[in-house]
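Task card 7
Instruction: Convert sequence to structure tokens.
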Amino acid sequence: IGRKLAEKLDVGLGDKVVAMASALSGAIGSDVFRVVGIYETFSSEFDKSHAYVYLPNLQQMLEFESQISEFAVILGNLERQNEVQAALVQELGSGYEVLTYKQLLPLLVMQVDVYKETIFIFYAIIGIAMMFGIINTMLMSVFERIHEFGVLMAVGMKNRRLFVMILLEAFLLGISGTVIGAVIGYLIYLPLADS
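Output:
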């Protein structure tokens, strides 16, 4: 069972749980199951409402005999879902309904789309804030070195060359910061990706 469901029912490994559901005949089917594992996914709502049971026991409880109401196919590559759906429809025939996750869970698809749009706005705000931070840092650097720039101009450096020097310095700082940030970000990402 899911961790949230285990917490809600106050059960742990080895404890017994009574499951009840409407059987095929319309009567209430029930059975006692022992908790042999507790899982946790990224969705607490899923963990709160799902349990995995041994299929023959569930079929007996729901009076399904050897029937199965549905089964899920997990793909390694979601881009192939339409191709796999078409192949299953052709293989199984018209007696079965084959749905992709987008057809089965349109609300989830909508939530993912909203998340993508929201995260784009969030990244844009962070980008603008970082841009102002960089501009502020560069302006402070320029204002602190006004005396130095005055000396350079006094010995003959042209305004244009001074401007190019400041731009080059800003460019090099930006490139080095990007490379260092990318390396640190990747090193932080690696252990998180494996967990």
